[in-house]
Specification:
Helix content is 53%, strand content 25%. By secondary structure, it is α+β, with helices and mostly antiparallel strands. It has a two-stranded antiparallel sheet. A hairpin with a 5-residue loop joins strand 1 and strand 2. The radius of gyration is 21 Å and the shape is elongated.
């Protein structure tokens, strides 16, 4: 059954990533420099963490808006499936799986 839900989960993750890109987000950029020590092993010499702010992307926002479908266009089966999906997400959030939201 997990394979059956894989495309839906992948789609949700893609839409979530598109949303983050549409509204903008911050990310940590890590640069590490290594040197070879006397024993031949690599040793971390320098590590820099830089916070990058990525601005909202209008193309991503446009794609998200085009993706939206009016409720009247959904079939009864699609509405039931969406209800199940939203209830599952709510249950996961209540159990502590909702840390993904920003």
């Amino acid at each position: 059954m997990e394979k059956k839900n894989a495309p839906a989960r992948g789609r949700e993750e893609l839409l979530e990533a598109l949303y983050r890109r549409a509204v903008g987000f911050s990310a940590d950029e890590v640069v590490e420099e290594y040197a070879v020590g006397e024993d031949g092993a690599q040793q971390l010499v320098k590590r820099r963490v830089k916070k990058r702010e990525l601005p909202p992307d209008l193309a991503a926002a446009k794609l998200l808006l085009e993706e939206e479908k009016p409720l009247a266009a959904y079939s009864d089966e699609e509405l039931k499936a969406e209800k199940k999906r939203l209830l599952r997400l709510l249950q996961e959030a209540e159990r502590g799986g909702g840390e993904k939201e920003e």
